[in-house]
Input
Amino acid sequence: MQQTILPEPVSTAVNEIMQCMEGSLDNEVEVRSDLLKEELSKFFLKKFIDGSEFVMTEDEFIDMFHKAMIASTLEDLRKKGIVDSIDAEDGDPIFWLTSQGKEFVESMPL
Output
């Protein structure tokens, strides 16, 4: 996420959740904190703009955590050369298998 200046209530809510998360993630689950912070920022910024209360359900948090986990995994695969991506017109990335990725998938046992 580009460096964005968030309204104070948004940054406070995001920072409080990120502080609660420190050290509580399972070592086997790899989620980049910057990607989780980005998802939380989007969520609370929308609440701020809508004038809604800063309340998050468990399902909403799980959804954001999953999005951050998927983005972390895709970024790791991109760094390894297994997938590549471009940004679509709407700004969302589009991923595909590279030649190396196709070879890797074909080498996997069924």
